[in-house]
Write a structure and sequence with these properties.
241 residues; alpha+beta; 4-stranded antiparallel beta sheet; 3-stranded antiparallel beta sheet; globular; RecA family profile 1 domain-containing protein; ATP-dependent DNA damage sensor activity
Amino acid sequence: MPNTRWLLGQWDTLQLHNKIGRGERFRKNATLSPTYGNLYHASYPNFVGMERLEDIYVHGVHDAKQLIHVLRDIQAFIAINHTRLPVKLIVIDSIAALFRSQYQTTPADLKRRSKMYFKISGTLKALANKFGLAVVVTNQVVDFIGPHDGVNAVRLGNLESLHTSRRRVGPALGLAWAHCINSRVFLARHQQSVGVNNRNAPSPTISSQTHRTFDLVFAPHLPHASAEFVIRKECAVGVSW
């Protein structure tokens, strides 16, 4: 009996290094989040038995090298069909956080960081092509400092500049990461004054509401587009111009 347990333990260790082992490791390390499914059922109680937002797996990643290993586990996880429905979306939030303190500003580190950019993007594109899924990578923004002309006046796709919360900003990770992506969108936030009708008030009350703007900054296959929306507890709602 002890020998059998030892052999089973060794077999489990070996499994971590093959295709099935990687998929199982991702399933065990990732957290299945039921929160979205509960919110969906509360908002749409008529759709009984539909659990579209139930199979959402969340996996923490602390640096770029770990992300590469997790992406390999995800590939095995998708290949062996662990979920009821096929995986069609991978979201990384955010890519800039992985590079915040791992690399210095020396030429050698900048070269290694740029190489890691292309390695991550190449792995994500390979996953998208192999399994027919979409990949969304969020990036952070940094405050734009400097004159608005000369070398700093580089046009960012369809927009001359990026503004959010009354600040001019630019995408983190610079041009090196910009060359790795296929399409870029920009989400901005600003305060909007709106009138609210109140039965007890003789005139509408002016209140402040947070509006968000979705801009298609760059895409080789799509024209420029923009949309404004607000986020409510139950869903996101578009706003007419």
